[in-house]
Amino acid sequence: MKLSAFWKLAAPCLGAALLTPFAHALDVEKLEVRRNATRYVVEFRAHLAAPPDQVGAVLKDYEHYPQLDSRILESRRDADDSSQLHTRLRGCVGGLFCRTMQRVETLEEMPGGLIATAVPGKSDVTYGHTHSQWQAHNGGTELVYRLEIEPDFWVPPLFGPPLMMRTLREGTLSLFTNVERVANGRAHAVKESAD
Q1: Domain for residue 6, yes or no?
Q2: What is the C-alpha to C-alpha distance for residues 118 and 108, in angstroms, rounded to an integer?
Q3: SS3 at position 135
């Protein structure tokens, strides 16, 4: 076999082998986005190739949410009530309709879980409930996430709902890909400081 023929066969395999450690390992088991009357529901289950303690730390590091989701402009706990989270988001539905939204949520933290419930009078939603659970599984983290939200703003009736569902689907995948990445970075930093 000529050397050039060898490289034509070997190069793709070698390239794949070199890039594999850098590919994200998010293994999505379920991602369902649906509309239920005026509410939108996201159900997500995935295996993250990151330690559960670091996944939990990232999900409870509210001030750094903008690093996880580019739509989040600001995220901070209320100075007078630390159980309340204030978030300012820039949301676009299909890149056509964009607006800045405010969301205030009451947080309930527990080991391996987090519940966030929107405060309707202070938010641009009439209903919002998010439940995240995580636990160790097969050397990583099994994550279950459910979001149910009812916007308190006009969504164009004909093409708005499908675009909203697409935006929620893409946002959920991006969010948890970033959670996995940041959690692994934290785990690596902890390991490096221990060595």
Answers
A1: no
A2: 12
A3: strand
**What is the rounded distance in angstroms from the CA atom of residue 126 to the CA atom of residue 81?**
21
Q: What is the C-alpha separation between 170 and 113, in angstroms, rounded? A: 23
Q: Note whether 21 and 8 are within 8 A (CB).
A: no
pTM, rounded to two decimals? 0.84
Residue 68 has pLDDT above 50, yes or no: yes
**pLDDT of amino acid 162:** 92
CATH code, 88: 3.30.530.20
Whether the pLDDT of residue 13 is over 90: the answer is no
Dihedral angle over CA of 150, 166, 34, 71, nearest 10: -40
Judged by DSSP in three states, 189 sits in: helix
Classify residue 151: in a domain, yes or no.
yes
Residue 81, classed as helix, strand or coil, is: coil
Which tokens go with 134?
A: 């995580």
Instruction: At 94, list the tokens.
Output: 């299909």
Query: Domain tally for the chain?
Result: 1
Q: How far is CA 180 from CA 30, 104, 170, 184, 190, in A?
A: 16, 25, 16, 6, 15
Please give the residue range of the domain that contains residue 109.
Answer: 24-194
Domain-embedded: residue 167: yes
Assess if residue 9 is contained within a domain: no
Q: Which neighbouring-strand residues pair with 41?
A: 34, 148
